[in-house]
Specification:
This protein has 711 residues and is α+β, with helices and mostly antiparallel strands. It has 22 helices and 28 strands. Strands 1, 2, 3, 4, 5, 6 and 7 form a 7-stranded mixed beta sheet that branches. It has a 6-stranded antiparallel beta sheet with strand order 15-14-13-18-17-16, sandwiched between helices. Strands 9-8-12-11-10 form a 5-stranded antiparallel beta sheet. Helix 11 packs antiparallel against helix 12, helix 11 packs parallel to helix 17 and helix 18 crosses helix 19. The chain is elongated. This is Serine phosphatase RsbU (Regulator of sigma subunit)/PAS domain-containing protein. Pfam families: GAF_2, PAS_4, SpoIIE. It comes from Streptomyces rishiriensis.
């Protein structure tokens, strides 16, 4: 039981269950992600089997990201990736920043509510599949974690308030009984040198032989990181070998030259407790490397961790779509990666800096900074943009010397002003700020400058996309009915959802047309494609149908005349359409179809089935096509659900099976509120998430029974 208001004890209990899960599953690395209160992000809460630095690109993951942990939470399912090839195919962004042979599973941690996800990783030597027993054990462990999290909330003890992820030891307890001196003597008797590294990369043991080969006394090396204490190992390739050993848990070897010409072989043997390293003189001298071209004062190469962080962020920036997506990615990934607490992203517009997004600033400050001229002396943003040179200020004193008013505006204590420039054209400025003084080493400045170029490219693409999207959205809204017409005797509701890929525009349409006091027409259709051309043709089809329907034309003739219009236009796009004439006096519904999926009929007793309608051909193919009529009785309380194929078509699933599945859920849905009923249909059909096609839904229900009940 969790004690009331004891976060430390709560985290300790959670860590114990988490570590036990990693140990019992045989995983080499484990990570526990928890949802933020708004459920927009997954925050890394605890890590096991690797240093926290390794997880820098993934400390915060958007729940919409194409990453295994996000998919596990978003779709509430276990995600298994059995190999690096499978990772590259299914999750290319993750594969870029994790280029090691491994297998992993991401499992949702859920109970009555969503809590987060558990990530487990194994070396690639394990079988590339999971057994039912393994899945069951992982699911049970996720259940235990969820129950603990529920107890924390119930007793007022949040599971963790840490900003940084906790590194949890596996706690295997091995080798506890081996005398330390015997181990040291054993290592000293071996030829060459022996040393040990922790999973964090620090020396925990160095033999005298290793000290001789490395050119440094063992006592000076203990507790240090090799590429920091031995400058000749300060190359990303050597650090990457260590990272590969930790993540893959497989032996790794590499050769390095100790100046001036002593070549050494390093053999790394990792396990869950650390890395054993054997160092021996190389038997054959490798070809000499080109002499370094940089001067002694030049910038040192970026750490391997920073390079992977950069490639991960670069991959993320290539996938963002709109300006707000760019802002969210910079705020959720780049800010935490560099420890910043504030962000201002502005764009150059008519000689001024317009703030397009921000984090960590109060509205009054943003109001003062928004719209400043590019040549302002109020902040360094304008000068950085006009010169194209980034500016870094480690503390307020540095800023005060040049910009005396700037620190007083925001109260921040350190700043990085990164100009966003494409081919010499200023796009905007990205400002990262800190609540405390912050030094900017040369390595960090180089990485931030590189990221600024990526942000500039992404922001420029995003602005272009947003402009096109606004145009497309306006066109779409103009072509679809703003509101459904009111028809006495009918309850109505409709929904249009664009494809989630593309321009958020398509050719699906619907309409409800009052004909007189006792009749109405309902129409739904789907123009091939989801682009501007499809939307333009959709407008022509809808106008044609509306015009012919207003004349009181029968359903088959409405489709025939619209079909002849389209064949005359020769648009090279085909259209499906379903037209229904509802006679509220004679209580009849007359339908005609041009290759459109049949509507669903739900009767008052809940019996739901597709209507049997012989379809005619698609519109725009044969000018002499015939569209057969079908007539059904309009019984009291009858519901008709019209839809486009975007609601039912799924890869690998038979269309008739999908329609039957939709009919089953429609029969069980609560019809008290038709808008909520449509929400339920979209959810059960899986249309509320990613969609490759747009869709439209139109639901009509005779309200005779509902009117009688209200009386």
């Amino acid at each position: 039981m969790v004690s009331e208001g004891d976060p430390a004890r709560g985290s300790a209990q959670l860590d114990a269950v988490f570590a036990e899960t990693v140990r019992r599953t045989g995983a080499s690395i484990g990570a526990l992600y928890l949802l933020t209160p708004d459920e927009a992000l997954l925050r890394l809460d605890a890590l096991c089997g690797a240093p926290a630095e390794f997880a820098a690109p993934w400390t915060r993951v958007s729940t919409t990201a194409p990453a295994p942990v996000a998919v596990a939470v978003r779709e509430d399912r276990m995600v298994w990736v059995g190999s690096q090839d499978e990772m590259a195919r299914s999750y290319p962004r993750t594969a870029v920043a994790l280029p090691y042979p491994l297998a992993l599973v991401a499992a949702p941690v859920t109970s009555a509510r969503r809590w987060g996800a558990l990530l487990l990783m194994w070396p690639a030597t394990r079988p590339p599949y999971m057994t039912g027993r393994e899945r069951g054990h992982i699911a049970a462990s996720c259940g235990r974690l969820a129950r603990l999290l529920e107890e924390f909330v119930e007793y007022g003890a949040p599971p963790s308030g840490d900003d940084e992820p906790r590194v949890v030891p596996v706690g295997t307890g091995r080798r506890a009984g081996i005398p330390e001196m015997a181990v040291a003597d054993f290592a000293e008797r071996l030829p060459g040198g022996s040393c040990a590294l922790s999973l964090e990369g620090r020396f925990t043991y160095v033999s005298d032989g290793a000290g001789d080969l490395l050119g440094c006394p063992p006592g000076r090396l203990l507790g240090t990181i090799p590429w920091e204490s031995l400058r000749w190992l300060d190359e990303p390739t050597y650090e990457d070998s260590y990272r590969a050993a930790v993540i893959s848990r497989e032996p790794i070897s590499f050769t390095a030259c100790r100046p001036p010409d002593q070549w050494l072989e390093f053999h790394l043997y990792p396990d869950d407790s650390g890395i054993s390293v054997r160092i021996i003189p190389s038997g054959a001298q490798p070809p000499p490397l080109p002499a370094p071209s940089r001067s002694p004062g030049a910038v040192t190469p970026a750490r391997a961790g920073r390079l992977y962080q950069l490639t991960h962020l670069a991959a993320g920036l290539t996938e963002v779509v709109g300006v707000q997506d760019v802002i969210a990615l910079v705020a959720d990934q780049i800010m935490p990666a560099f420890g910043a607490q504030g962000l201002v992203l502005s764009s150059a517009d008519a000689g001024r800096l317009r703030i397009t997004g921000h984090r960590g600033y109060d509205p009054d400050t943003i109001e003062r900074l928004d719209g400043l001229p590019l040549d302002t002396d109020f902040t360094p943003a304008g000068r950085a943009l006009s010169s194209g040179i980034p500016s870094f200020f480690a503390d307020p004193q540095e800023m005060l010397r040049v910009y005396p008013d700037a620190p007083q505006v925001s109260g921040k204590r350190a700043w990085a002003f990164l100009p966003l420039i494409i081919s010499g054209r200023p796009v905007g400025c990205c400002v990262l700020s800190y609540d405390r003084p912050h030094t900017f080493p040369a390595e960090e400045r180089a990485v931030l400058t590189s990221i600024a170029g990526l942000i500039a490219q992404a922001l420029d693409r995003a602005r272009l996309y947003d402009t096109k999207h606004e145009l497309a959205h306006g066109l779409q809204q103009a072509l679809l009915p703003r509101t459904l017409a009111r028809v006495d005797g009918l309850r109505v509701a409709a929904r249009y959802l664009p494809a989630t890929r593309g321009m958020d525009i398509g050719g699906d349409f619907y309409d409800l047309i009052p004909l007189d006091d006792s009749a109405a027409a309902a129409v739904i259709g789907d123009v091939q494609g989801h682009n501007v051309a499809a939307a333009a043709l959709m407008g022509q089809v809808r106008t044609g149908v509306h015009a012919h329907a207003a004349l009181g034309t029968s359903p088959d003739q409405v489709l025939s005349r619209t079909n002849r219009l389209l064949t005359d236009l020769a648009p090279d796009l085909f259209t499906s359409c379903l037209y229904a004439h509802l006679d509220l006096v004679r209580r009849r519904v007359t339908l005609a179809s041009a290759g459109h999926p049949p509507p669903l009929l739900r009767f008052p007793d809940g019996d739901t089935r597709p209507a049997v309608i012989p379809p005619g051909p698609l519109l725009g193919i044969d000018p002499d096509a015939v569209f057969p009529l079908t007539e059904i009785p309009l019984t009291p309380g009858l519901m008709l659900a019209f839809y486009t194929d975007g609601l039912v078509e799924r890869p690998g699933i038979d269309l008739d099976e999908s329609i039957a599945h939709l009919a089953h859920h429609l029969g069980q849905a609560d019809d008290a509120d038709l808008d909520l009923l449509i929400d339920e249909l979209l959810r059960t059909a899986g249309a509320a998430g990613q969609r490759t096609d747009d869709l439209a839904v139109l639901v009509l229900q005779d309200e005779a029974l509902h009117a009688g009940a209200s009386d």
